Every structure is written in C-alpha cells, then in structure tokens.
Amino acid sequence: NAGVTQTPKFQVLKTGQSMTLQCAQDMNHNSMYWYRQDPGMGLRLIHYSVGEGTTAKGEVPDGYNVSRLKKQNFLLGLESAAPSQTSVYFCASSYLALAGGSRETQYFGPGTRLLVL
Amino acid sequence: GENVEQHPSTLSVQEGDSAVIKCTYSDSASNYFPWYKQELGKRPQLIIDIRSNVGEKKDQRIAVTLNKTAKHFSLHITETQPEDSAVYFCAASTGGNTPLVFGKGTRLSVIA
C-alpha cells in the first residue's frame, strides 16, 4: 500500500495563478483532510470530508476550495493564489468507525511545498 | 469549538534525561487525544494516543497521561535519545465526525 500520496511535491506560483493539489489514499478511508503548516502555527485545518461527495470548512478555508468526487481522492484548489498562501500543505486520511464513534489513526501524506511569488 | 494549548514551544534536554510536553484543551466533551511526531522535512506520524476512559498509556519510552478533571494531557519521554529530536504535536477531538484540533507544536532538541 502506498498510503497517502500527494502531488506535486513542490510548486511555485505567481500571484493570481490557480492550481490544484492532489491527494490520494489507498486505505479505503472515509475521512480526508487538508492542512496547512506554517512556522509556529502548527497544523491548521483548511477543509475536510467525511465521505464521498461531502465536504466541510475547517479553521482557515478562505481562498481554497475542495472536491471529493471519489472516495480515494481529495483535491484542494487555489483559484487565485496569494503570497499568504505560501505554506506546506498536508493531506491526511482516517477511518471513522461510525458504530460507537471510535476513531482510528490519521495518516498524513508527504506534503506539498507551495511558494507564491 | 475546541482549543488546544501546548507548552513549551521549545524544549532542550540532555541525552538520557526525560522530557515532558503538556497540552490543555477546552471542550470537556473531547475524548480522543493523539500525539504526533514530525521529523525535519517529514510528515507527522502518530506515536501514541489515549482515549478518555484511560488515565495513562505507555509504549516503551513514551507515555501519555490524561487528567479529565483539569482538562490536560501530557507526553512523557524517558531516556531521551538524539533521534527523539523532532516537533511534537498534541491534538484533541470530541469524536464522531469532528476533526482533530492540533496544538501549535513543541520543538524538542536532545543534546548528545
């Protein structure tokens, strides 16, 4: 199993450009998440999805959109990139056993380093 | 919503000493508390977690304690080694579909 994979690994954008960060998992997880990591700020949740076709906003959703058309894929879009979106982006996935509400480990992808000039 | 505070932000210890990182949470309904380790340039990885029906959990040199009354939990690393140097994140969740809320991290340096 590859686990959680992300593409691209590194990207440079100019202000105003758009792009899509891709995330895939092969663990049949129902929940997927997008975080951004900035120095001293920890991991901040951008958007998340608890199942195919459903998405929800996290702590810092402005400037981003997401889509979960397939269970194994979670896409993060930047419509008009800004320098404030320079960050490392991590995708993660987990399986939530709905019966009883137990939670299993959240697995992270290797990250995408984004630089917006 | 949930708020997780983590202290200290940086911690330096001599090799062989113990390290303790503390987190407090605000939502008394939180019931799941994982700890993640992130080495430089790598992804965060789970090292230990604890649920609200347990007060302490150990895994070799790592232990986590939970005080539900005071709403805080701690990571204890004994006999620290240079490879323990990393950023450690605590997190909390109320369960169900509620996402994890992370602390801001602690950079641990183990000095040989």
Account of the 3D structure:
Chain A is built from no helices and 13 strands. With 117 residues, chain A is mostly beta strands. In chain A, the strands form 3 sheets. In chain A, strands 2, 4, 5, 6, 9, 12 and 13 form a 7-stranded mixed sheet that branches. Chain A has a 4-stranded antiparallel sheet with strand order 1-3-8-7, with no helix packed on it. In chain A, β5 and β6 form a beta hairpin. The mean pLDDT of chain A is 92. By secondary structure, chain B is mainly beta. Helix content of chain B is 0%, strand content 54%. Chain B has no helices and 11 strands. In chain B, strands 2, 4, 5, 9, 10 and 11 form a 6-stranded mixed sheet that branches. A 5-stranded antiparallel sheet of chain B has the order 1-3-8-7-6, with no helix packed on it. In chain B, a hairpin with a 6-residue loop joins β4 and β5. The mean pLDDT of chain B is 94. Classes of the chains: A mainly beta (117), B mainly beta (112). The interface between A and B is medium-sized, with 22 and 22 residues.
List descriptors.
heterodimer, A: 117 residues, mainly beta, seven-stranded mixed β-sheet, four-stranded antiparallel β-sheet, 0% helix, 56% strand, globular, B: 112 residues, six-stranded mixed β-sheet, five-stranded antiparallel β-sheet
